[in-house]
Specification:
This protein starts with a helix and ends with a strand. The radius of gyration is 21 Å and the shape is globular. Helix content is 37%, strand content 24%. The chain has helices spanning 3-8, 86-99, 127-146, 153-167, 171-174, 226-231, 239-259, 262-281, 292-308, 331-342; strands at residues 22-36, 41-42, 46-47, 51-69, 75-80, 83-84, 109-117, 179-182, 196-198, 211-216, 313-316, 322-326, 350-355, 361-365. The chain folds into two domains: 2-202 and 360-365, Ribosomal Protein S5, domain 2 (2-Layer Sandwich); 207-355, GHMP kinase, C-terminal domain (Alpha-Beta Plaits, 2-Layer Sandwich), CATH 3.30.70. It binds (3R)-3-hydroxy-3-methyl-5-(phosphonooxy)pentanoic acid. (3R)-3-hydroxy-3-methyl-5-(phosphonooxy)pentanoic acid (PMV) binds at residues 34, 37-39, 51, 126, 128, 168-170, 226, 276, 317-318. The site of (3R)-3-hydroxy-3-methyl-5-(phosphonooxy)pentanoic acid (PMV) has 14 residues, from loops.
Length: 366
């Protein structure tokens, strides 16, 4: 599939001499929560194992890219919630450098990038997934418009997923609604390390409108970036066992998502969450991203499940916050539990109620 690079590298996509361009495009793109985790990468942001996620509904980034001709090569500025963010520009520079051969016309443009999130910054919701996918969708729309490309929807989204992946691996999955996988698995012929695949059609009705209540244990900045975390997998003593485990969990969970076995679902999802954090703790150097309240909340969730027999389970991203997953039909009981028990563990704990969502939408193009 490395010839995809060649496929997407189009040196002819250059604006002709006097052509004046001016326009803007806006996309909303959601975050996602991985059920089988991507942890460890190689090459240009390629995963060491396949991963799979639910796409969220309420937690999304809305990005507008305004563009016009540039006299002096590629230029951009980045604004988050209306404020200029030089720190983010450094990170985006790396991304733009990596995609300059795919979008050669960028060196003729000046971009203003305006982003806002529906969730608090540093809340532990993957803003890189929603942010990088929203920006990549905007760039693909600009390319399509400027050069009148005839991509169908599948081709457009695949390219947006490919570009998103270069920005942030997990972002490649946000391009698709409900359920998306990323990374080659022997189970799915069409799967690829280069872009994600839409798996929404396999979902058993039990998973439709599945709820994700995000328990915000701590809103601080992470001590270790996900890039640093991925790189610690390079020399990790358990790396090969982990990649084998992820491949096997991937195959099992695809079956479970299709047959609706919620007990099996819980076992795999929690095994993935705990394995991810165990890998962090057993890295060299080792580190914790969970907090004491994370463990208290997990214990409380497990006791609640024993007591009520409700099919709820937890997962964790690379941080202390807990994603509580459950069918929509148990919303009332679970919300009561969250508000009476989990929020009472500490006054700083907050909750964001989310659920599986439809995927990105284009808001405007002119
Ligand atoms: O996409 P990144 O580089 O931020 O890595 C994401 C890693 C996890 O969120 C921990 C797992 C995943 O698959 O989303």
């Amino acid at each position: 599939m490395s010839n995809l690079n060649t496929l997407y590298h189009k040196p002819e996509l250059i604006l002709s001499g006097q052509r004046k361009v001016l326009g803007e495009v806006t996309w909303q793109s959601p975050s996602n929560i991985a059920l089988v985790k991507y942890w460890g990468k190689h090459g240009n942001q390629l995963p060491m194992n396949p991963s799979l996620s639910f796409t969220l509904n309420n937690s999304y980034t809305e990005t507008t890219v305004k563009y016009r001709n540039s006299e002096n090569g590629f230029k951009f500025s980045f604004f988050l919630e209306g404020k200029h963010k030089a720190g983010f520009e450094k990170k985006l520079n790396i991304f733009f450098d990596k995609i300059k051969e795919i979008f050669p016309f960028l060196k003729q443009l000046e971009l203003g990038i305006f982003s806002k999130n529906t969730f608090p910054h540093s809340s532990g919701i993957a803003s890189s997934a929603s942010g990088m996918s929203a920006l990549s969708l905007c760039l693909c729309s600009i390319e399509k418009k400027l050069f009148d490309l005839k991509y169908n929807e599948d081709e457009f989204l695949r390219k947006a997923s490919y570009i998103s992946r270069i920005g942030s691996g997990s972002a490649s999955r946000s391009v698709y609604g409900k359920l998306a996988s990323w990374g080659k698995s022997k189970l799915l012929q069409s799967s690829s390390d280069y872009f994600s695949s839409d798996l929404s059609t396999i979902l058993h009705p039990s998973f439709l409108n599945y709820q994700d209540s995000i328990i915000l244990i701590s809103k601080g900045e992470k001590e270790v970036s996900s890039s640093a975390g991925h790189s610690l997998m390079n020399n990790h003593p358990f790396a090969s066992a982990r990649f084998a485990q992820a491949n096997s969990n991937f195959i099992k969970i695809v079956e479970v998502l299709n047959n609706g076995n919620l007990d099996e679902f819980q076992a795999i999802v929690e095994n993935e969450a705990l394995s991810l954090h165990a890998l962090m703790m057993s890295s060299s150097p080792g580190y914790f991203l969970i907090e004491p309240d994370t463990l208290k909340a997990i214990k409380s969730i497990v006791l609640f499940r024993k007591r009520t027999k409700l099919p709820i389970c937890f997962t964790l991203d690379a941080g202390p916050n807990i994603h509580l997953l459950y069918p929509e039909s148990y919303k009332t009981q679970v919300r009561e539990f969250i508000e009476k028990e989990l929020l009472n563990l500490d006054s700083r704990i907050e909750v964001i109620y989310d659920s599986i969502g439809k995927g990105p939408i284009m808001i405007k193009e002119s």
